[in-house]
């Protein structure tokens, strides 16, 4: 049974997008390319930026404004796509959900796990879907890797190597924990997608190579333990010139029946046997939309059918918790338990929550670990 409101209005889903910057332009492209949706409103604090983004795409008749709820009401919108900066995710998502609109929000759900828990409670209180766009789940070759991983028996070790050298300029080169906070959530989320498991703990070290053009640590290695005993090892650097990996990294999955390799782009390579002892074959790749187009398609399907999407906020919290725990471990030099991160975040969420209806939902969870873990299990598996 659906736990969020669905939309059965005929015709394309009418969308208001919030945020018209660089990523906002990419979302405008994805929305206009999908016949199942229609962009009817664009919200940005800088309305000139919004109008310029629409003009670049040659779009007329899209209402521009600075208020999510006002633009949505004026356009008869069905849903919101939130492409704002992370610090604005929580207030924009809350405004939209309590205006009666489901939301597809760019990752991360929020800057902190505490705010993400508040959003999960807000989704329950409002009865609306909040889906986080983990766009790098949507690669057909990653789906092939997931299928193969399911045939390898018990999984012992998964590794991701991520080595790129982007010169972004701007805020990324000045931010703390830039690799962990801005990029690592993608592979952290992907390993949960591959295995259907949640992490138990992490030990992480960060450092900044002497030649780095980033102000703070731009390289990290993290070792996660998962519920089955699986170890996931992530090693990455954002100042690694030469022989760069793909943006998805380079993966190795080792299980009791063999190994699968994925370069982050092409179909995986498998050296393994199936349960019958026969050589394991890689399934044919699907042809579904990828990256943000894939995320958008799943969101539309979810609000039309009531089928819970992979990126639903309750499920996504553990991916964000992996980042927060890795940062804590890097800062303290200690192994960090994910449950401790969630419990601390829950206390922070309870203390900070201003809406009485959302706070009532948070209070109603009782034991947050048991209640939330059971919700995650029901949603994710």
UniProtKB/TrEMBL annotation:
It holds the Pfam family GFO_IDH_MocA. One of its GO terms (molecular function) is oxidoreductase activity. The keyword Flavoprotein does not apply. Coiled coil: none annotated. Residues 149-260 form the GFO/IDH/MocA-like oxidoreductase domain. Keywords: NAD, Oxidoreductase. Residues 14-132 form the Gfo/Idh/MocA-like oxidoreductase N-terminal domain. Belongs to the Gfo/Idh/MocA family. PANTHER family: CONSERVED EXPRESSED OXIDOREDUCTASE (EUROFUNG), CONSERVED EXPRESSED OXIDOREDUCTASE (EUROFUNG)-RELATED. This is Predicted dehydrogenase. It comes from Arthrobacter alpinus.
């Amino acid at each position: 049974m659906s736990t969020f409101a669905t939309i059965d209005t005929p015709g394309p889903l009418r969308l208001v997008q919030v945020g018209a910057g660089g990523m906002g332009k990419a979302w405008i492209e994805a929305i206009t390319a999908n016949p199942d949706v229609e962009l009817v409103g664009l919200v940005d604090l800088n309305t000139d930026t919004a109008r310029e983004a629409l003009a670049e795409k040659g779009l007329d008749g899209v209402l521009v404004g600075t208020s999510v709820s006002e633009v949505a009401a004026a356009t008869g919108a069905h849903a919101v796509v939130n492409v704002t900066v992370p610090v604005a995710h929580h207030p924009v998502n809350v405004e939209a959900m309590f205006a009666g609109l489901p939301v597809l929000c760019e990752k991360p759900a929020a800057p902190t796990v505490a705010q993400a828990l508040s959003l999960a409670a807000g989704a329950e209180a409002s009865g609306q879907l909040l889906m986080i766009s983990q766009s790098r789940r949507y690669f057909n070759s990653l789906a092939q890797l997931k299928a193969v991983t399911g045939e390898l028996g018990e999984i012992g070790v998964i590794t991701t190597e991520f080595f790129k050298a982007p010169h972004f300029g701007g805020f990324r080169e000045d931010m703390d924990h830039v690799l962990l906070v801005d990029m690592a959530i993608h592979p952290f989320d992907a390993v949960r997608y591959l295995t259907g498991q949640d992490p138990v703990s992490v030990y992480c070290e960060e450092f900044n190579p002497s030649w780095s053009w980033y102000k703070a640590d731009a390289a990290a290695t993290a070792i996660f333990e998962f519920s089955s005993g699986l170890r996931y090892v992530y090693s990455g650097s954002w100042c690694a010139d030469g022989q760069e990996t793909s943006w998805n990294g380079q993966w190795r999955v080792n299980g009791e029946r063999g190994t699968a390799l994925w370069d982050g782009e092409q179909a995986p390579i498998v050296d393994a046997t199936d349960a019958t002892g026969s050589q394991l074959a890689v399934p044919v790749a699907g042809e579904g939309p990828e990256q943000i187009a894939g995320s958008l398609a799943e969101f539309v399907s979810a609000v039309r059918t009531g089928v819970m999407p992979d990126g639903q906020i309750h499920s996504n919290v553990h991916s964000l918790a992996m980042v927060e725990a890795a940062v804590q471990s890097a800062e303290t030099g200690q192994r960090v338990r994910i449950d401790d991160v969630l419990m601390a975040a829950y206390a922070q969420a309870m203390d900070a929550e201003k809406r009485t209806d959302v706070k009532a939902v948070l209070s109603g969870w009782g034991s947050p670990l048991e209640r939330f873990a059971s919700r995650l299990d029901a949603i994710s598996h």
